[in-house]
Specification:
UDP-n-acetylglucosamine1-carboxyvinyl-transferase, Chain; 2 domains; four-stranded mixed sheet; 13 helices; 33% helix
Length: 450
Amino acid sequence: MRERYRRRYPSILSNRERAGHRTRIPTILPAPSKPHFLRAVWLAAAMRGWSTLQGLESSGDLAAIARLARAAGGEIRARRGTWSLRRRAGARTERSVDVGESAFSARLAIAWALSRAGRTRITGRASLLRRHIGDAVPPALEGRVRWLRSRGTLPLEIVPGRVAREVRLAPPRGSTAASGQPLTAWILAAASAGGAWRIDWPGKIVGPDHLRLTCALVRGFGGAVRRRGATFHVDPERGARRLRIPRDATQAGVFALGALLAGHPCRIGGIDLSGDHPDLALLRRLRGAGRIVQRRGGIEVRPGPIPPLGGDYSRMPDAAVAAAALAAFGSSPVTLRGVRRLRAKESDRLALLARNLRRLGARVGIGPDSLRVTPAREAPRGPIRLEAGGDHRLAMVFGTIARVRRGVRVSGEDAVSKSDPAFFRRWTPLVSAEAGRAGPGPRRSAVRRR
């Protein structure tokens, strides 16, 4: 029947077939949201009754927060992405905890250890030992901390001492603003402890969205967080609950980058642009430029000219990596402000980002707190070798570029295991769709299999 219609109506059938290819839009599902699951696992493991978390997937960060939750007396039963958690009655807390590569878990471990009277040793992987996490130690409690390697870094030991329910944090020397992670860590530690707590932060908080997310989750588990200026009062009245972890907006931005560079539409499941993840701001900017549309169950990326995405990224530093990479393939210079914090991530992310973008042909200028990217006039010739530098965010972004641009290779892609070992397997729907669009013949897919 098909062959008969093909001979009788060749143009009509061909048009229908082409329309069918255009409507086959693949769907990519990002990993669970890292800011949500880090906080939810800790809080759920502190509940007296069983709490259930759905939608979890294995990663280095999840393993680190699970080890810390168990060390604090939590019980975890995991089965196929669904975790049941509670606080074991009469459980003895452990005296040593390994936080892997997670700086967030390291700061939370410090706050938890200082909120109890016993002795605790905190260690981590070699890549974490270079990062400064001493900002989680209040000045009044520095006497309880023994730095075993160098001041402000792991490993360290918390010695027995008095528990103070009034904590005053301090910004780094010479600065009145800092990451909200130390404050977030102390709010979570207070929410898992007994009695009421008061936490003071005298400076400006960079990244207040993560702080709001923390307070909302504490309240969701029955606790109370009241803010009066720079003072936070935490009351750990709590109860069990059932929670589904949303999908990660940071990864969604990287998938949008890949779809735009490949020139292929795709759907990114589980993303709601009205959500509370800070990195949704980048996706909203793409929506304002007509490159993203909110659909039921996720968002749809529509190929087209890459819009300029300059602006302030101080509240979403992780999204700045994907935005800078997009700017390298745009049509006009773009300046990203508020990117100073990228220097204190898993690597000197700002320097590595600039180095790799230059290898892609872009002109890059780095300021004290800014990054200016001018797109390349023409693609560089020959093979291009990029480096992730052990940084999972850089591995995701440049690994994505390597899959949609021929001649690009990335060293150190295995760094994605910190937050999502299955990251590159998530590309399978787009790889298959692009291969189908190419059809038979010598033409290679723009999205390469690995």
